[in-house]
Design brief:
heterodimer, A: 273 residues, alpha/beta, Rossmann fold, 2 domains, 6-stranded mixed β-sheet, 3-stranded antiparallel β-sheet, 9 helices, B: 254 residues, mainly alpha, MetI-like fold, 11 helices, flat
């Protein structure tokens, strides 16, 4: 008699945990956004899966960046609801990496203090901040002199610092808006590996906007293909190649067919416009 | 090659050498009446004597003092107001005309008004100069804050920084390079106004008075000496602010 309610509660908690593990991380419902000359989103629904690296890919101007900017609260929505495990954005910790690292870093702070800055905003003590930055540097095996100012670093180093700044708060979700498009190819390859390593280490739900299909497929578990605006989810492609993926992965049949399929869908959407 | 590089250090002195040569030649050939144009040697002798044992040194320090005071007063008033105005573009647009109008008004036209307000003394000179400098500084600070990189502000916002923290941690630092542009322009303008005020508003000291008095007495070497002293002061103040800027706003232009 007495044990029963406890057992029931135990069961329901387990069920709840299990549901949480498989439930989508972010639910987008009825999202609408108009700019003066165009309707970018009209009653858009989408679920972002938990613990996956998801890329957003689509024709130019279809609203790839607009989507993550609305999810991350950088630009307001006209209508609709975006919830993170049922909670609004204000209740969660998230990281955002900008395309333009030069303008997103604080040039008056050394790289170390740039990484620690979000913790300062949160009111974390100085000693704790230092400890946490040192920890993330060790975890990611970063070999950069963090006493330098951002303008003394290469583009790739700055973007790596910027990714660490986004990760320092241990975010539940990480957004990256074309993070490597301002880097040269050599640095882009290196940074893809860095991002993959971060993802393998932390399994943080990650949303990446990319204009490079090769990059999108290579890095992602899921690829969201958008139509021209008003954007619809044309297809949600799964790509489950094991990690760590290497340059070898890109010559495997699975990768090539996935990429070809995405390209086909993309070109069909482009021609529609 | 190395010898050539070493010679390049001398480049800035070429202009000075040419100026002195042309000047000496003009005096030597008596192209200009020697009463109007003394030789470089007699001018620099007058400057040396004036600065070390004469009244020129006292005048120099007096002008420095007035310029620094007026720039400091201008900065103390204009920087906080500039930040306040710049943090809201709507507020700035509403007072932009007034600022631009008075910024365009020659400060020397304000002398009579300030004379009525503050009388014939240091207070008038310093306050007119501060008035002129303040508007230049205000305008630059406000624009510095307004033109803060949007991405940087957004970056702070996604980290959850409050409006006040963004103003303090981001906009203020973003505006520093432009603030220094304002300070350098402000101090130059303050010096101009102080020197003019010293000439015409019943002064007994200062570089302006020194130039004016030497002219009245037709003491040309002393007059040129005072002009060069004023030039050196202007150049020195600009250099001082540039040095401070390089030290504290190390990211400027990068």
């Amino acid at each position: 008699m007495t044990a029963q309610p406890a057992a029931k509660m135990e069961l329901s908690r387990n069920a709840h945990e299990a549901a949480r593990r498989t439930a989508p991380h972010v639910t987008i419902r009825g999202l609408s956004k108009h700019f003066s000359d165009a309707t970018i989103y009209d009653n858009f629904d989408f679920d972002i899966p938990r613990g996956k690296l998801m890329s957003v890919f689509g024709p130019n101007g279809c609203g790839k960046s607009t989507l993550i900017n609305m999810i991350a609260g950088l630009i307001p929505v006209d209508a609709g609801e975006i919830l993170f495990d049922g909670q609004p954005l204000s209740q969660i910790k998230f990281g955002y990496v900008f395309q333009n690292y030069r303008e997103a870093m604080f040039p008056w702070l050394r790289a170390f203090d740039n990484i620690a800055y979000p913790l300062k905003v949160m009111g974390v003590s100085k000693s704790e901040r230092t400890a946490r930055v040192e920890k993330i540097v060790a975890n990611l095996n970063v070999k950069i002199d963090l006493n330098l100012y951002p303008y003394q670093m290469s583009g790739g180093q700055q973007q790596l610092v910027s990714i660490m700044r986004a990760l320092i708060v241990e975010p539940e979700i990480l957004f990256l808006d074309e993070p490597f498009s301002a880097l040269d190819y050599e640095m882009t390859l290196f940074m893809r590996e860095q991002l993959q390593r971060v993802f393998v280490e932390t399994s943080t739900t990650t949303v990446l906007v990319s204009h490079d299909l090769e990059e999108a497929v290579y890095l992602s578990d899921r690829i969201l293909l958008l139509s021209r605006h008003p954007a619809r989810a044309v297809e949600f492609v799964h790509y489950d190649a094991p990690r760590p993926r290497t340059l070898q992965t890109m010559s495997e049949a699975d990768f090539i067919s996935t990429k070809a399929h995405c390209l086909e869908v993309f070109q069909r959407e482009v021609r529609k416009g | 090659m190395i010898a050539l590089k070493r010679l390049q250090i001398l480049l800035p002195f070429v202009g000075i050498a040419v100026l002195l040569a042309v000047w000496s030649l003009t005096v030597w050939a008596r192209i200009v009446d020697p009463v109007l144009l003394p030789s470089p040697v007699s001018t620099f002798r007058a400057m040396w004597i004036g600065m070390t044992s004469g009244k020129l040194g006292v005048d120099f320090l007096k002008t420095v003092e007035r310029t620094i005071y007026s720039t400091a007063i201008a900065a103390i008033i204009a920087i906080p107001f500039g930040i306040l105005l710049g943090s809201s573009e709507k507020v700035y647009r509403s007072v932009e005309f007034v600022i631009d109008f008075f910024r365009s008004t020659p400060a020397s036209a304000m002398f009579p008004l300030f004379l009525v307000l503050f009388g014939v003394g240091d207070r008038t000179k310093i306050s007119v100069a501060a008035f002129g400098a303040a508007l230049v500084i205000l305008f630059n600070v406000a624009y510095g804050v307004m033109n803060a990189r949007k991405t940087r502000i957004l970056a702070a916002r996604v980290m959850g920084a409050s409006r006040l923290r963004i103003l303090w941690d981001v906009m203020l630092l973003e505006s520093l390079p432009q603030t220094f542009v304002g300070l350098r322009n402000g101090v130059s303008l303050a010096l101009v106004i102080v020197v003019v005020a010293e000439m015409f508003i019943g002064s007994t000291d200062g570089l302006g008075q020194s130039v004016f008095e030497a002219q009245q007495l037709f003491n040309m070497p002393d007059m040129y000496a005072a002009i060069f002293a004023a030039g050196a002061l202007g150049y020195g103040l600009n250099l001082l602010f540039l040095t401070i800027e390089r030290r504290f706003v190390h990211w400027s232009g990068k």
